[in-house]
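Long-time lurker. I teach an intro course on protein structure, and each term I like to show students one example going from raw sequence to a predicted 3D structure in token notation. This year I'd like something fresh instead of my usual example. Would anyone be willing to generate the tokens for the chain below so I can use it in lecture? Attribution to the forum is fine with me.
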Amino acid sequence: MKKIFRIVIAIISMLGGVQLYAQDPNFSQFFLKEMYYNPGFIGINPGLRGTVTDRHLWTSVPGEWGTQSIAFDYYDVKFAQGGIGGHITRNTQGENFLNTFQGGVGYAKQIRVLPDLMFQIGAGAQYIHKSIDYTELSFVDEFDPRFGRIYETEFIPPGEGYWKQGVFDYNAGLVIRFNIRKTPVKYIASNSFGIAFHHLSQPDMSWVDDGKEAPLPMKVNIHGYSMVRIDRSGFYNRFFLLTPGFLFENQTPSNLWFTGSEAGAKTLSFGINALIPSKISFVSSLYTGIWMRKMYIKRIALQDDIANLKNKTFDSMIFTLGYKKNSRDKKSLYQIVYSYDMTISQAGLSTGGSHEITLSFEIHNLKLPGRDARRNAVPHPNDKFFK
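-- Reply from a regular --
Happy to contribute to a lecture. Here you go:
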């Protein structure tokens, strides 16, 4: 406990000498948060899609470290052969002293090159609102080495102890999807790769009005995943699906990020999921997987033995488990997926790890009133894998 206290004091003491930059919250189930990471995914599947995610970080650490997110998108040929979507994300850090709200909308244009090859170019705009409650913070000059927190701080918070700021931000992305067929009606693989650029306007997110700007740095995401059908004979099923993938994120220059916790300067996540349909009912599937998150952080020496961050470190090992249910006609589905992040970095298992749960649904042939139900799109992979 004493060591944890020293770490907290050291980090707080550094706030006066290090210019910090905001970091975007991460999700372990990024393969279910496509629109959050790349607006090019908006409307990539025909019909309506929605996701709800709740993530809690460091459950054994005092305070709330959580992120909640809701997103939806819809594709229709009469939207200039594209899709529209929106999202709302809320992030809380510490004893509810730092809150971030993001809400945005986006559009993606679909370009079909071949029956099983298409590109999507997407762009989005969002409003970001941050607030800080300085009354919930503790400062170094409040503590006595023997008696703890007994003094009044000399820090004078701006805005009567409460700071808030709202800015507009923009992003853009590109996605390519191509499918490989075993027969004219059956897929053996569906592949999606893309790149996205976030915070194109780099809005000023400085905490105090001291004339110095703290721009929200642009973030680049590079990602890819595949869905591959493996045919087999067995007691439980006759085939299963493997979905390997990766996500690389690059945001803040590594010499500006020192905590090595939720989202470092450069982060690489990679792993594989398995979708195992039931032999009794092919519309039901077990969802499981294992992932790794690796961070690239510049070595920084803090105080004494408080921290010794290495250039490259594995942050967490992620385990996923879920259930997926398709309708009998394969035209709609819903799924629930839970993941646990086991911390394997120097923060240790004492943080309690992180928990994340996602609920999602898709309605493939939903049409707006008065609109044609035809879809000028690459067929939904779900319709072709379960033949």
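Some talking points for your students: DSSP finds three helices and 16 strands in the chain. Residues 161 and 227 are 51 Å apart (CA to CA).
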